[in-house]
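Section 4.2 – Deliverable D4.2 (structural model, holo form)

The reporting period included a commitment to supply a predicted holo structure for the target in complex with iron/sulfur cluster. Inputs used:
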Amino acid sequence: MQITLYLKGPLKKYGDNNDSLTIELEQDQVAINEIIEQLEIPASSISFIQINGEKSDSGTILMGGEIIVVNPRVAGG
Amino acid sequence: MTYTGTVLRIDLTTGKATKEPLNKDWAREYLGGKGLSIKYLYEELEPGIDPLSTDNKLILMTGPTTGTIVPNSGKLAIAAKSPATGTILDCSIGGHFANELKYAGYDAVIIEGKAKSPVYLFIDDDLVEMRSAADLWGKGAHETEHLIADALGDVITLAIGQAGENLLPMACISSELYRQAGRGGIGAVMGSKNLKAISVWGSGGIEVANIRKVSAALNKIKREDTMTDDNMWAYSDGTPMIVDLSQSTGILPTRNFQEGTFDEYEKINSAAVKSTLKAKKACFACPLACSNYVKKGKTEVEGPEYETLALCGSNCAIGDLEAIIEFNRLCDDYCLDTISAGNVVAFAMELTEKDVHDFGIRFGEIDNFLKMPGLMANREGVGADLAEGVRAMAEKYGGGDYAMQVKGLEIPGYEPRGSWSMGLAYGTADRGACHMRAWPAAVEAFGDIDPYTSEGKAELVIGMQDDNAVKFSAIFCDFWALSTERMAEILNMLLDYEVTAAELTRIGERIYNLARLFNEREGFTKKDDYLPERIFKEKLTTGATEGKVLPREDYDKMLAEYYRLRGWDENGMISDQKKKELNL
Ligand code: SF4
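Output (structure tokens):
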């Protein structure tokens, strides 16, 4: 399966400074937090994750083809 | 000790400037910035004064971090009684004015009275001059700053544009062209005093005990706690980053808060702003440099910030970034607060489309949209009505249910129906609808907390309000997500007494309560803590917030819990016990 990942703002560094990553996986399904762990993004650095445009739980199972956006924490407004 | 210990008091009526000692007891209880300026105003202003009369005072207040190399310490508090709301008003402005004021030898400036004719002030260490502003009156803030720089050389200036001269309740104060003390009509207070600008230059410094040790410690903090994942969004993107967050969570105000998503959001989001980026800019002592200097087509600006993109973009259905940049530039020059300006234009668009009153402007009309800042600032044509703000427009023409304001201050860019804690934060903010007193959307709509429950929201909002009160008083920019423990650690390097995190939280609580007490004295009650009916009744129709309202019963519940946790009575009045506890 294949997924596309966008790492926003300072989180880009966890994807070698690429705006987006296309990840090929051998499994049929995988939880989004496993991908986050593999990329070594600290959970505390993430505000929320969007899957196909919707705010999603970090335990959401991916089936392939998803577009994922990982947003950093923000402060102040 | 990093206070200079000196307050400069300037009476514009007599033209006299005097120095007086800073009230050290108050400084210990209120730190500086927001807290200390509110304390001075509470003690010195008579209740019920007209904010635009000679009785109001304008206070510029630094804090104990000001002028040092503490990260993100470059902000200045400017406070007065608000012409927009009649509440207490403190604004925060970045740039380099605060450190220069401290280097000139002052913790604060208190400006009283009214000059006979337009003047500007020049503070150059001990020299304080009141100069004629006859040639500057009628000019925009940008030209004013340029002309003053031509006359005085290297100075940092706070200036007003035509909006301040014409006493608009949304007039702001500008500095270094694109930095603003934005809200509540603080610029109109300057205008009412015939004060066009204040320029400062200082040749002194700040004394810090054991400077080597302090520098090393602060550099370590900067590396390990400032330039980190939590804060570097400010550098990588700045506030435009929030457009995508708000869009995806359905809280991006659109068409005067009729919807929470905007079809054209990709034309105004961070990626779009970045495509026009020319340079990053920062306030004094700031490693985060959140500001984007952008250029598109024939226009350029430092900005636009999220609030401008949301209120003047999606909220007016303007998906053209060049138009938003130009609107932003015009507002900065005339000195209009873009949050209020975006709101009034959107309200006029909705009133026109609903046939309530024809303001000659509809959603998405770029040409008319760009005419509005000039018409408002000069009170010309339809601008005369818009200049008064949405509450006054609704009183005159109707549409009060969707005049998006609290206590007379227009609502910032986070839709409360998709972030219930933001609703409570707006309702209980000391200066009317404000996102800088507490910004719980960060951990709720954009975090793990359920946005659609009243549970736990009061505690969340109170914690943030008290923490922010400390931040804006000690002077740490709110874009640095630092803990009160870290604030205490830093302040202990600068002060000649020790302070703990718990004591800072107590100071924050004291400041927030004093602000409330000021408003209570002005006659504000529970009914003023409510949001426009649209939020309680009208369902949103798109995106993640489709079908959502903030039910009034849930708001009532949050508010009751908020009063209870604050130690206020069921009508939101501060109890005598709480006053005693906080030494109010
Ligand atoms: S983060 Fe932005 S607003 Fe805050 S001090 Fe730095 S440049 Fe100024």
